[in-house]
Amino acid sequence: MELNERILHYLDKNDKVDTIKLASEFEEDHQKIVGAVKSLEALEMVVSEPTKSTRWELTGEGQQVAELGSHEAVLYNHIPETGMAQAEVMKTVPNAKVGFSKAMSAGWIYLDKSGGAPLVKRKVDTINDTVQEHLIELKKGIDNLTTNVRNDYKKRKLLQEVTVKSFLLSKGPQFSTTIKKLETDLTSEMLLTGAWKTLQFKPYNFDALGQPPECGHLHPLLKVRSEFREIFLEMGFTEMPTNQYIESSFWNFDALFQPQQHPARDAHDTFFMSSPATTTQFPMEYLEQVKKVHSEGGYGSQGYRYDWKIEEAQKNLLRTHTTAVSARMLYKLAQQKEFTPQKYFSIDKVFRNETLDATHLAEFHQVEGVVADRGLGLADLISVLDTFFKRLGFHKLQFKPAYNPYTEPSMEIFAYHTGLGKWIEIGNSGVFRPEMLLPMGLPEDVNVIAWGLSLERPTMIKYGLNNIRDLVGPKVDLQMVQNNPICRLDK
Amino acid sequence: MPTISVKRDSLFAALGKTYTDDEFQELCFEFGLELDEVTTEKQMLMKEQGEHVGAGVSEEILYRIDIPANRYDLLCLEGLVDGLLVFQGKKPPPHYVLKKYEDCHSLHLTPATGQIRPFAVAAVLKGITFTKESYDSFIDLQDKLHQNICRKRTLVAIGTHDLDTIQGPFVYDALPPSEIKFKALNQTKEMTAPELMELYSSHAQLKQYLGIIRDSPVYPVIKDKNGVVLSMPPIINGDHSKITLDTKNVFIECTATDLTKAIVVLDTIVSMFSKYCSKEYEVEQCKVFAPDGAYELYPKMCTREETISVEKANNYIGINENGENLARLLSRMCLSSTTEDDGTTLRVRVPPTRHDVIHACDLYEDIAIAYGYNRIVRRPARVVTTGGQDPINKLTEQLRLECAHAGYTEALTFTLCSRDDVATKLGVKIEEVPAAHISNPKTLEFQVVRTLLLPGLLKTLAANKKMPLPMKLFEISDVVLEDKKAETGARNERRLCAVHCGRAAGFQFVHGLLDRVMALLREPWDKDTGYYLRQCEDPAYFPGRCAAVVLRGEVIGKVGVLSPAVLAAFELTNPCSALEINIQPFV
User: Fold this and answer.
1) Contacts of A268 in chain B (CB under 8 A)
2) A403/chain B closest Cα distance in angstroms
């Protein structure tokens, strides 16, 4: 008969029983009994009440004594008829100190000091090792000790009190001596045969989670990217083609009126290419205008007044900003016969050769928005930033004067983050300098406003990540990717 | 962005007002600066050198303030204070006076200087009184200028000297190193130039400048009428003419490879420190003679005049102020102006401290700063355009969703990688890979731009071994290939890559994904009109389990089971199959 059924039968005859008793009755491991009880309880056939009982068990030393005899008995048995020098006894007999004092107080031995060195001699001919007897009995589970004796053994560390957790069983609401098989699920066969009408169903566990569906997942940062694209598209912006990581210094720096001795053009900030090393194709008329405005001025500007070298402009690099693409688009716009207002955006990778730390990598995504129209000013830039950042959930903005080589005026954008309860720097913006736009051939009254931010930073703030490598790169925890919720930027 | 350290209490004393840290931060915000850190000298040293910094290091509160990179006039306490006081309307912009004497000091350049450092400018400050603080500030400003506009002394090098210890006229020459011998600053004996170069080769601060002149046949040297060496630019000044707290008259010389910058640097120094002269803000000019005998007077201290239209300025910012108000706003930025033409134009005087103003737009920004960026009223948007997506990005978005629908998880891997990642680990030589190489990688993680998406996905698998199998990853992103026909010599290519990692390689799964993607792109499984698989061999793939994906005669990618050698190279212990195709043909 199955263990479960045996338990049910026992309960049927005995109303209440302790699992410890069951374990000894059935000669089964207590844990196995408990396991069976738990499954019976799930079927509501039994009810269990946790209970505690204590019993006395042999310690390790106690086990040793039960096996080999008490220390005093061992010592007694060690001593020959003629006796043994005390010093030798102490040295050779295990646990001699305890054994000696106990054997002395039990009257089994005596010390003969008549000769020079003290001799230990037997006092009685035979002994009764009651300690060992008691422990052997206890081992079997028989406990007939008086409190005094027990306390003595406890003091001698031969016994320890052990708490045993067990359960008191009684009949449950669904008690019966046979276990009905419970169905876990409704099947087509049951429908076919109609058996579902008479079968019993296992209660469904509403307190556990369901089975997760097998599905694929999108990357958290790229979900944010999709949201940003949507915001721009809803605001009527056109996406710029940015699929060109390698750029010439000309479009990345010179066309943007960034001088050739600028620190950003240092090898320690920018990745320069050893292969392909240079670009030689440029719109030459435009290049000459750029050269002029850098070295001599013009278009209302003093210029930088330095020797502009074409070799510097030819150097290839990994673009440091997507503004290089914006420059190309504005140049293309300027070649149109008639100017039409435009709104452009892009979100793509840029590369910086900076010191790496927890929040900086060599590559990240830049978000850029550009508006070109006649008569635009700072007030228009502020308005568009208000609209854009509202979509991201930032309703309070503050602007701080800043410096960029290619925009003037320039503003750093600070937003109030309600979750963190403080102002954070969220982006950079400005009005492109005339020295950049006029050489392209754009009409004089056309102004271009632009702003940019990184994609990684607001994403890390939103998802509470401290290290950028937890978001981008091979070391990202895929579990995090799979658990990442839908991207709701304004919540 | 340069950062200056000023003693907070000295700053407040000079500003005539005490602020809390927050109040000062707000003032900085409005003006365009940032209070980066509140610290002490002791704390700063402790950060660098550890806890055991000795006694005697100052515990006075220091403000570390970030200064915009183009504002050389704010790089010292003196300039910062002037800028802030004028901004707050508490003092009018300083007015500098240039003094030229008939017997003014002169600096003569020899033809040899043309070989190494062709330009020089000079100025004199008379009757100056230094305190310990202003002396430190003077040295500090030179250091800041050296680091920034002088581009670490390569473009301009500054030397300042006690005029009373030397006698003009001064000569700026370039001599063979062995012919230069003098007692350098803080040294005890005279040394030749080669000896000095040797001495400084282990000097923490100076060794970085030695390369500027080391290999030249001639080194720059400035001497006075009696042959006393003032300095050997850009390395070190002479001890003889060094400035002390007792110095009353200062001779300033700047040698340069860029004359414009030298002029700016000189203007900046004299503007900042002429306030300590006996005649406040007065600067004495010097004649600098070119090798051919023609001379120029320096410093220039030019006040440029720029005329701007009131209407244009208002519109550029989006405010509506009259000419008088705009003039007032500009004055607070040290740009004195007057209205003209019935108040429709402004004539603005750009002082020599504002070399950053090179176009009218710089003036518009200053008006906006003085007005207050946060006071500008928003103008409703009026540019009406329809939006549009870049076709390849639109296709990417659609395919990303489909791959996720198919049960694959998206990864985002690094664009830059090592040469091994795209060559050796895949069983090929780097020379055979059309990769774009970076010339100055700091580590081998940035040696090349990736030519495949596969290595990145394999690294992601290797870092996520705790995930249950099978693991299915994908990425749709760009790789870069060398291409002589492209404008820059390289082009981006949009790829779709997927990997399946499990107890079994599962070729059929990535193959199935390929079929699904092709079906979604309406490509039939047909040799002529669509796509098919053509078995091939590739060192990265398991023999007999690799195929080229062919689309109407063109190979667009590969699919197969990865070779155990590749798995080992990427530290993977379970078999993988992979798919990588170029999706640009489908745009």
Assistant:
1) 440
2) 6
Do you know the residue count of chain A?
491
Number of helices (H) and strands (E) in chain B: give both, helices first.
16, 29
Question: Which residues of chain A have a CB within 8 Å of the CB of B312?
Answer: none
Q: With contact defined as beta carbons under 8 Å apart, do B443 and B470 qualify?
A: no
Q: Which of A187, A210, A233 is the last residue of a domain?
A: A210
Disruptive mutation site among B359, B375, B509 for chain A (greatest number of A CBs within 10 Å): B359
* Contacts A433 to B, Cβ<8 Å: 359, 361
Residues A159 and A115 in one domain: no
Mean pLDDT of chain B: 91
Contact predicate A440/A350, CB 8 Å: no
Domain match, A102 and A190 both: no
* Domains in chain A, number: 3
Question: A377 burial class (0-12, 13-18, 19+ CB within 10 angstroms)?
Answer: buried
Question: What's the pLDDT at A2?
Answer: 77
A482 touches B: beta carbon within 8 Å: yes
The pLDDT value recorded for residue A29 is 85
The type of residue at A190 is: M
Optimal mutation site among A339, A360, A385, A403, interface B, most CBs of chain B within 10 A: A403
> How many whole angstroms separate alpha carbon B62 and alpha carbon B80?
14
E strands, A176-287, are 238-239, 246-248, 273-275
Mean per-residue pLDDT pooled into runs of 10, chain A (491 residues): 80 83 82 85 84 82 84 83 82 82 83 80 83 81 78 84 85 78 88 88 87 92 95 95 96 94 78 94 95 93 91 95 96 95 96 83 94 92 92 91 91 90 92 95 94 92 88 92 88 74
B257 band by pLDDT with thresholds 50, 70 and 90: very high
Q: Is B385 exposed, middle or buried (0-12, 13-18, 19+ CB in 10 A)?
A: middle
Asked if A217 is an interface residue toward chain B (Cβ–Cβ < 8 A), one would say yes
Judgement on whether residues A366 and A451 belong to the same structural domain of the protein:
yes
Distance from CA of B81 to the nearest CA of A (A): 18
Hey, is the C-beta of A410 within 8 angstroms of any chain B C-beta?
Answer: yes
Partner residue facing B456 (CB), from A233, A248, A474:
A474
Touching B: A residues 28-87, CB under 8 Å? none
Indicate whether A123 and A136 sit together in one domain: no
Do A327 and A379 belong together in one domain? yes
| ipTM of the shown complex | 0.87
Q: Tens digits of per-residue pLDDT, A86-100?
A: 888 888 888 888 888
In chain B, the domains with their CATH numbers are 3-87 (3.30.56.10), 100-187+214-298 (3.50.40.10), 304-372 (3.30.56.10), 391-586 (3.30.930.10)
The answer on A171 and A94 residing in a single domain is no
Q: Are residues A110 and A205 in the same domain?
A: no
Confidence of residue B99 (pLDDT cuts 50, 70, 90): confident
Same-domain check for residues A149 and A202: yes
Give pLDDT, residue B53.
Answer: 64
Backbone angles phi, psi at A417, to 5 degrees: -95, 110
Domain range for A80 is 71-128
Give A-chain residues touching B68 at CB under 8 angstroms: 401-403
Nearest to A233 among B71, B387, B488 (CB): B387
Residue B416 has pLDDT above 70, yes or no: yes
Longest CA pairwise span in chain A (Å): 134
Predicted TM-score (pTM) above 0.90: no
Interchain contact A480–B (C-beta under 8 A): no
Q: Select from B359, B404, B489 the Cβ nearest to the Cβ of A279.
A: B489
